[in-house]
Amino acid sequence: MTSKKRRVKLEDIARKLNISIATVSRALDENPRVKLSTREKVINAAKTMGYMPNQIAKSLSSGKTNIIGVIIPRYDEPFFIEVCRGIDNYAREHNYKILISSSRNSFEFERENLISFERGLVDGIILSPTHETEMFAHIKNIINKGIPVVLFDNIREEVSGADHVIIEDDKASFEAVEFLIKKGKKRIAFIGGIMEKKVFQNRYKGYIDAMKKYNMPIHDDLILHCKSLDREFEDVEIQSFLKGVSIIPDAIFTCTDNYGLLTMKTLLKMGYNIPDDVAVIGFGDLGLGEVFVPSMTCIAQPTYEMGQKVAELLINQFNEPNDVSHRKKVVKLKTQLVLRDST
Amino acid sequence: MTSKKRRVKLEDIARKLNISIATVSRALDENPRVKLSTREKVINAAKTMGYMPNQIAKSLSSGKTNIIGVIIPRYDEPFFIEVCRGIDNYAREHNYKILISSSRNSFEFERENLISFERGLVDGIILSPTHETEMFAHIKNIINKGIPVVLFDNIREEVSGADHVIIEDDKASFEAVEFLIKKGKKRIAFIGGIMEKKVFQNRYKGYIDAMKKYNMPIHDDLILHCKSLDREFEDVEIQSFLKGVSIIPDAIFTCTDNYGLLTMKTLLKMGYNIPDDVAVIGFGDLGLGEVFVPSMTCIAQPTYEMGQKVAELLINQFNEPNDVSHRKKVVKLKTQLVLRDST
DNA sequence: TTAAATAATGCAAACGTTTGTATTATTATA
DNA sequence: TATAATAATACAAACGTTTGCATTATTTAA
Question: What crossing angle do the helices spanning B21-28 and B10-17 adopt, rounded to 10°?
Answer without folding.
Answer: 110
